């Protein structure tokens, strides 16, 4: 019968303990979430800086709606590009010290757009093995040759580039190195200084997805750009910046190319101008309220110090702390036990992470308190064996 795969694939997911269902949150902030009339301590939120519900951002959203409207009413190349978008782009250029910036509807769309735009038939895309699904999908849908290097293995990356150099004159190939600044499921950082050096050596372009670094890394929360010269930076507004949408910061030539050739950019309604105006405010707060970044670091150290030796924590220098449990069923079991104790942690299972590395992905935000972390560590120590 036609479309039998719909049910069959769902049954298979269930049998493998990989079935996913949404949970409707009645209320949530970085620290707490209410689901099915029960309040939990929330350790699954990407509101890293605790800016969601900030009164100044809400006020800017209202002001943006009043001045520019809730909807752009067109794509950026028709009439959708407004003063609110331009002002936000300018702030991002100043923040990251980049000549140009373009806004996209989401990080997923931005990454896909960029891989397709940069990946022409004379391009080689070198992706870190743990790159986000949107980078992989975009790369595989492009005309480029796609190569994956082992996670954070810059030696293997150099070897791959070197091998391709011996086959073809390197300047004839468009080499693009793609990595995340902070990796979404492990929370560890890329060595961006080394990546930038390798990029220079092989005349490659360095593309960084800073979804989990923006706001969190750098003196002013500018992300990986604080540490090295990066050719193209993509970051989403939907995590530390507490709004929605994404940006790509790059040089003039690439921005001009995207405006003319990126189908995602050309054929999509520009982001809500009200939201762009609100994002401008959240970037201002992220830059000046350094205490939020310091708090994340302090609470992260507290968590590490309180977890018992039997808990397998991946080393991290970000808001994300991954505790690898192993198989799907055991991970779901640990999550349920934590839920019974009033802690909300979503189990991260394959295909999001490799087989047998299902995990708890703990996110620490600036709105958590010491007592929350102490309680979390105590509960994890009790339920993880
Ligand atoms: C590393 C990374 N890149 C891109 C995205 C996509 O961003 P957005 O949620 O804005 O589509 C995510 C979000 O899940 C992410 O973790």
Concise account of the structure shown:
With 385 residues, the protein is α/β, with parallel strands linked by helices.
Describe this structure in words.
It is a single chain. The chain contains 14 helices and 14 strands. It has 385 residues and is of the alpha/beta class. The chain has two domains: 18-49 and 290-383, Alpha-Beta Complex (Aspartate Aminotransferase, domain 1); 56-288, Aspartate Aminotransferase, domain 2 (3-Layer(aba) Sandwich). The strands form three sheets. A seven-stranded mixed beta sheet has the order 4-10-9-8-7-5-6, sandwiched between helices. It has a four-stranded mixed beta sheet with strand order 1-2-3-12. Strand 5, helix 6 (133-140) and strand 6 (145-149) form a beta-alpha-beta unit. The longest helix is centred in the last third of the chain and has 16 residues, at 273-288. The protein is globular, with a radius of gyration of 21 Å. The protein starts with a helix and ends with a helix. Residues 106-108, 111, 132, 134, 180, 184, 209, 211, 236, 238, 246 line the site of pyridoxal-5'-phosphate.
How many angstroms separate the termini? Answer: 45 Å
Coarse shape: globular
The CATH architecture classification of the largest domain is 3-Layer(aba) Sandwich
Mind telling me the C-alpha Rg?
21 Å
Q: What structural class do helix, strand and pairing data support? A: alpha/beta
Query: In total, how many beta strands?
Result: 14
Number of helices: 14
Q: In CATH terms, what is the fold-level topology of the largest domain? A: Aspartate Aminotransferase, domain 2
Q: Give the integer mean of the pLDDT values.
A: 95
The largest sheet has its strands arranged as 4-10-9-8-7-5-6
Spans of at least 5 consecutive residues with low confidence? none
Reading off the top of the CATH hierarchy, the class of the largest domain is best stated as Alpha Beta
Write the element-wise H/E pattern from the N-terminal end onward: HEEEHHHEHEHEHEHEEEHHHHEHEEEH
Whole-number tally of structural domains? 2
Small molecules in complex: pyridoxal-5'-phosphate
CATH superfamily of the largest domain: Type I PLP-dependent aspartate aminotransferase-like (Major domain)
Q: What would you call the quaternary organization?
A: single chain
Strand count, sense and barrel status of the largest sheet are: 7 strands, mixed
- In helices, the fraction of residues equals 40-55%
